[in-house]
Specification:
Blueprint: H1 6-9, E1 16-18, H2 29-39, E2 46-49, E3 57-60, E4 67-69, E5 74-77, E6 83-88, E7 92-98, E8 104-109, H3 111-116, H4 118-128, E9 136-140, E10 150-151, H5 153-162, E11 167-170, E12 173-176, H6 178-188, E13 196-198, H7 213-216, E14 223-227
Keywords: Hydrolase, Metal-binding, Transferase, Zinc
Family: Belongs to the purine nucleoside phosphorylase YfiH/LACC1 family.
Protein name: Purine nucleoside phosphorylase
Length: 230
Amino acid sequence: MIHQLQSFLAVGIQCHGFTDRMSGDMRSLEARSAVLDQLGIPAGSFVQAEQVHGASVAVVSSADGSTTVKGVDGLITTSRNLTLAIRVADCVPVLLYDASKSVVGALHAGWRGITGGIIERGLEAFRTLGFASGQLRVGLGPAIGQCCYEVGGEVAELLALRSPGCLTSRSGRDFADLRGAVRYILLEHGVPFSSISSVDVCTSCRQDDLYSWRREHEKAGRIMGFIALP
């Protein structure tokens, strides 16, 4: 099943979404190929980020089709019909496009990426291409929720520096809201509140249809977030 955002569909961003457990582990070429076939996406017009839990973002073109871009956790393109993809199992998949539908992006935002500046780097790349934050529309996909995401003291401190208010304490233990942290940073940098949509489900809670590293550890598969310009 592909989870899509109505706000994206309403403006013609048809090729976007987030896979689930039924679609298979998106690290698998076989599972990934099946999804691409289902969506009618040619393998030659599909590009994914290597994902190293960093904050580097690459601007890619149709020449990068059928490749994995090394050393980055975010992709941005102005090329038509080039599908960008990232894979997650608790981290926040972030999809972006501009109001004129001239550029799209996909970011992988875990706690390391968030505290390292992946969201800011993505917005900076859009600005470099001539698109201000106020023009952007953003979709946040399935990720681990504050209900389940307990973090240690050092991680809590780093997240609090980036996003005050993304933490809550229960019985002396800290729990982080990664989607809330991403939303805070977007708002702080000028993305309108009304321009941010999300699939508000917790990957750790939804054992039947989503993967979770926190719940399954090494056995966890990956879902995929993807987007392309029409």
